[in-house]
Amino acid sequence: MQKKLIILGAGESGIGAALLGKQRGYDVFVSDGGAIKDIYKQELAVNHIPFEEGQHSWDVILNADEIIKSPGIPEKSELMKKVREKQVPVISEIEFAYRFSKDSKVIAITGSNGKSTTTALTFNIFETAGLHAAMVGNIGLSYARQVATAPADYYIVEVSSFQLDDIRDFKPNVAILLNITPDHLDRYDYKMANYVASKFRIAMNQGPEDYFVYCVDDPEITGYLKGHTIHSTTIPFTIMEPLKQGGFMTNEQVNIQVNDEPMIVSMYDLALKGKHNLYNSMAAGIAGRTMDIRKEKIRESLTSFKSLEHRMEYVTTVRGVDFINDSKATNVNSLWFALESMEHPVVLVMGGVDKGNDYSAIQDLVKEKVKAIICLGIDNAPIQEALSGYTPVIIDTRNMKDAVNAAFGHAEKGDVVLLSPACASFDLFKNYEDRGRQFKEAVKEL
User: Fold this and answer.
1) 111 a known binding residue?
2) pTM for this one?
3) Which of 75, 131, 157, 290 has a CB 3.0–4.6 Å from the CB of 137, allowing a cystine?
4) For 120-134, what is each residue's pLDDT tens digit?
5) 233 is in an annotated binding site
């Protein structure tokens, strides 16, 4: 008899799971409390997968053998309370995809910041080396869709804490933990310890034959490691001091020492600039070395990689003013990294839906580097209150065109206009991609 598989949420991960489930002989039903995009409805129809939108049929859902839950559905929701009460097994889409890809190698990357960049850079290393790799997860196609439609030998998977919350057997060959800073705490009872533990689930099933790659400079990571055992082979990386094994800096050179094979690249030759990208480059380079990719291929990739759209993306230069789109920066820590990497005076465009941000972390950097802040959002009061004493100019705007015009008006030749909002985008935009695209369009109209 077919197992009843219910998929809650019909975004990219839900549809990918539905396709994989159908392909593997499950009785699949998709349920979404909101509207499902037309393109996804067509896919479900073509594949004869029944679905509902705008509601959840409790009787059908609670009768499932197994549920795959969208990362966006919180445990506190009425739906999940009922599911847990009935004790229906719940897994995430990455857990389901992993079930059918155990013959491949999996490199999983998590962290509060830099996941997408490191995932793309790691994928680029594997591709440059001529390996049959796929970049999946929160970036590109869902892991399950890739397994269903175009299986690969190597999966480079960007994973969030929400996805890790619902794994059971997911066991990456290489797990990378970049950093842990406060984010999404509303989903973790506002307890940092819960969020940290969630991130560390990436390594929970690993054994000595696997690798756990982590940043020694992150106090949350090192604090957790003092009280918990990791069973895989650990490879640290740092920019603070030389190491015998791992990634480190000496004389402005990035060193990657894995399997007794030293590899050195000048930090000035790296394609991605800024302190945070030293970490990202080290992590990606270590991942490549654990899979015995040749040093020349890793070096080639690290020095020629093009950054991702909306992530410290250079847009253009207008009358000597550089414009950079960092719309993906949806928390204060991302903005801190962006400002830290700036070498010229900055006109900063920021704001949006404030997730309870603590702007005190960037006050010193704002004072040192920012000549004007252009607020872009419905409620800019928290930014005004926290940063007005640290920069001479703060202006309110309510749309992207006005924000870009105001920023350009306060910029001089040699300055940088940086869109790095530190906030979610939903007050004025569909998502961070829409915000970034509108920024680029407004810049082109100058």
Assistant:
1) yes
2) 0.76
3) 157
4) 899 999 999 999 999
5) no
